[in-house]
């Protein structure tokens, strides 16, 4: 019998959770992973000496495992009398310092600023699932207010969540309004649970870490980190942070889809960003061989790197051209990688090293774990490009004038409208270079807003 609720409103119902834990019995239920999945990020923000409130503990083993490694100041609360009774009985002898209380998280009996940390694994998601127009999220908001009350200055609310947009928006807007710092970690792995009586999904798990300040910062502190120890990427607004989280979720869904293959007629594309600047660094197109294609047994996966300045060539810049390239390469899956202007690439070896760990996440299903993945290219180097002018046109938006080295080894000057960056608007061959990477002829005048003609 399925233990999942029939409606979203049941997730915030005490009666539903009573039925859930009675049917579940003594078997622990782990939303969003267990201790081994989460310990890295939890230990980073919660210390063994901290007084910790575990919100919505259920019958998860997480508190027990934290207790066993030294976290012995844990107060666990849940709205389910069945869950609290079972957990108290299970731990009375072995873990006498582990406290379990039947308490509503929206109105607790604790003193203000009593705790140093509040740990929430799935409770916010459940409480924010209530429906009902203007009242939507009311329970979750009351819980967040109560969490803020019982945490001391410097305290942290650590929330493990799938970060559905309405849930994350509710929490982030609340804590930003209170003057707290907000950091979000996107963890590897998938959300849901492996339990056969539950559903699973391809979405990643996120850990929301909200820190209480004595005085609000002059501007919102909003950060996103990839993995447990990834560098923090700063965002200036709540919508920007929500957008970055959506990108993480979209990438996870793409990886999940790629594990079972792709439709050869519609090759997916994705961009890898340059963390310091936040600008696109690589564009990747993933192409699978059509069913029935004869591919050598050892040709599972390869990466083709397009030299700088060549990404507009028909073979690399069009779906038909990339399809022809993939057929010629004869691999089960080919990833075609294009480099972006305004980014520096040292040499082909450095590019390969940078891409190695990233592209392996896109490997085809069934590829042997020790399979060598070749990097392919033309010419053996990263190519050459120099942006000599950038501007904004009333008619065409942003544009760039750049010098590139063509397939014939000659230098060309191109005009690119950046909203159609894969199309060369105009091109002229330049004279002999006057120095390394330079050109002997340079246009000093560029079309102005008044003289430029709109594109046809």
TrEMBL record:
PANTHER family assigned: EEF1A LYSINE AND N-TERMINAL METHYLTRANSFERASE (PTHR12176:SF78), SAM-DEPENDENT METHYLTRANSFERASE SUPERFAMILY PROTEIN (PTHR12176)
The family this protein is said to belong to: Belongs to the methyltransferase superfamily.
Organism, scientific name: Lepisosteus oculatus (Spotted gar)
Residue ranges of domain Methyltransferase in the record: 52-129
Chain residue ranges for the region called Disordered: 426-456
The protein, known as: eEF1A lysine and N-terminal methyltransferase
Alphabetical list of InterPro entries matching this protein: Lys/N-term_MeTrsfase_sf, Methyltransf_25, SAM-dependent_MTases_sf
Assigned keywords, A-Z: Methyltransferase, Multifunctional enzyme, Transferase
Molecular function GO terms recorded: methyltransferase activity
Upper classification of the organism: Eukaryota, Metazoa, Chordata, Craniata, Vertebrata
Top-level taxon of the source organism: Eukaryota
GO terms for biological process, alphabetical: methylation
